[in-house]
Design brief:
This protein has a domain of 108 residues: START domain (Alpha-D-Glucose-1,6-Bisphosphate, Chain A, domain 4). A seven-stranded antiparallel sheet has the order 1-7-6-5-4-3-2. By secondary structure, the chain is an alpha+beta fold.
């Protein structure tokens, strides 16, 4: 187990996975006991050169989010609400339960992750007058140690793409199509 944890940490930097504090930052997170379950979270972070209100709105309004991440959302994110996010190009969707919204500060959801319910938390920190530091943390991975490591690495990569897509769209008006181009039809299993 220690070898897997060391491998995960050495893959890049401390933003890939960290030990959770004794009281997890993401409330309602479900963690396994034993093994790596409960020890691993995936985190992606990036500075977006737009005001915090605009960056926050990009994640709660599916009309905007569909320009850089999923293709369709059934409604805005509001605390206590359930929505469906779809990636039509992959024939995939997930039910999202919105646990908390703190306008321009934080979003907390639960969704069907790799092998069960996972928690995803966005935090928005103003940086200067017209920029926002966005942090996305995914936790609650389940399975054996290898599965948990792979889920965390996949999540880190996926949310890095989400932030890159957000940055390109909000700062330059460019739609990168990262979600579609990450797994193009006909190239599966390569």
């Amino acid at each position: 187990m220690r070898r897997l944890y060391d491998r995960l940490l050495s893959t890049s930097n401390d933003y890939i996975a960290t030990e959770l504090p004794e009281q997890p930052r993401c409330e309602n997170a479900r963690h396994e006991t034993g093994g790596l379950g409960g020890l691993i979270e995936a985190k992606a972070e990036m500075l977006i050169r737009r005001p915090v209100s605009e960056v926050f709105e990009a994640f709660v309004d599916p009309e905007i989010t569909s320009k850089f991440w999923f293709t369709k959302g059934s409604g805005r994110l509001d605390a206590g609400k359930q929505v469906i996010w779809e990636w039509e190009m992959h024939g995939a969707s997930t039910k999202v339960e919105v646990k908390a919204i703190e306008r321009n500060k934080r979003i907390l959801i639960e969704w069907a992750g790799y092998k069960g319910q996972e928690t995803v938390e966005w935090t928005f920190t103003p940086y200067g007058e017209n920029a926002t530091f966005v942090s996305i943390t995914n936790s609650g991975f389940t399975g054996d140690d290898d599965e948990i490591v792979n889920q965390a690495l996949d999540s880190k990569g996926g949310f890095a793409w989400v932030l890159a897509g957000l940055k390109a769209y909000l700062e330059f008006g460019v739609r990168l199509n990262l979600a579609a181009d990450a797994h193009p039809k006909g190239l599966e299993g390569r």
